[in-house]
Amino acid sequence: MTPNEPNRADLGKDPARVSGMFDQVAAGYDRTNTAMTVGNDALWRAATTRAVAPKPGERILDLGAGTASSSASLARSGAEVVAADFSPGMLAEGKRRHGGMRNLSFVEADATSLPFGDAEFDAVTMSYALRNVNDPKKALRELFRVTKPGGRLVINEFSTPPGKLFRGAYRFYNAQVLPRVARVAGTNGDAYDYLNESIRDWPDQRALSSWIREAGWTDVAYRNLSFGIVALHRARKPQ
Question: What Å distances lie between residue 69 and 25, 37, 217, 233, 239, CA to CA?
């Protein structure tokens, strides 16, 4: 593949291909997301920040941070936030936008083998990233490992709207409209074809909750946002 050829990831989720795809869309990623979600991305980010409930002095891992919009939102609380991602292109864009925040650092990291010690973080979170990991159950175990006893987990991820009519309309939008919006916004539309496929293939809210429990987390709960387009999952590591 040439440097300028669009990178098309698939449901095999080869880390190199997925990372390369996100490298290519990094510059326009936030703009395209805002267009595709009709501004709901900002509302979802605010809901995630409230669920994490960051406090000054806490150490928080934002895994799959992308361009670090979510990390910056968390860091404004005064917490020490680590923005981690396996896409160097996304991290570079995050540093360009938010590198001036003194309590925000950036680390290139594989979600299935995190470069952190045991029990380092008061809270860990992922937004729209667990779905892109080739072994999401292992990633949940890694997040458990690096979290302090009593620490918090928040996963915000695309999910399955429970209403049948709305679910059908949403799937039509993802399949037919979303890639066209991405191309109009000047982004790799093939990447958003993959996005639709990965959402369609992803387990529903209850299945993801069971994965979280299997990884050792307790007090597992979720709530739907925007009629279940995304679901905000929360849990805690036992004391």
Answer: 15, 15, 26, 19, 31
Alpha helix ranges (H) inside the chain: 15-25, 29-36, 40-52, 69-75, 88-98, 136-146, 164-172, 178-184, 189-201, 205-214
The CATH homologous superfamily to which domain 15-236 belongs is Vaccinia Virus protein VP39 (3.40.50.150)
Binding-site residues from annotation = 67, 85, 110-111, 127
Closest CA to 231 of 132, 128, 129, 156: 156
3-class state of residue 55 by DSSP? coil
Q: How far is CA 85 from CA 4, 80, 127, 208, in A?
A: 22, 17, 11, 21
Domain coordinates of the chain in residue numbers? 15-236
Per-residue pLDDT of the chain (239 residues; tens, 9 = 90+): 444 444 555 666 777 777 777 766 666 666 666 666 767 888 999 999 999 999 999 999 999 999 999 999 999 999 999 999 999 998 999 999 999 999 999 999 999 999 999 999 999 999 999 999 999 999 999 999 999 999 999 999 999 999 888 889 888 887 787 777 766 655 555 666 777 788 888 999 999 999 999 999 999 999 999 999 999 999 999 99
Annotated binding site for S-adenosyl-L-methionine: 67, 85, 110-111, 127
Q: Are 181 and 151 in contact (CB under 8 A)?
A: no
Residues comprising the chain, all counted: 239
Burial class of residue 47, CB neighbours in 10 A (0-12, 13-18, 19+): middle
- Say how far apart CA 82 and CA 225 lie, in whole Å: 25
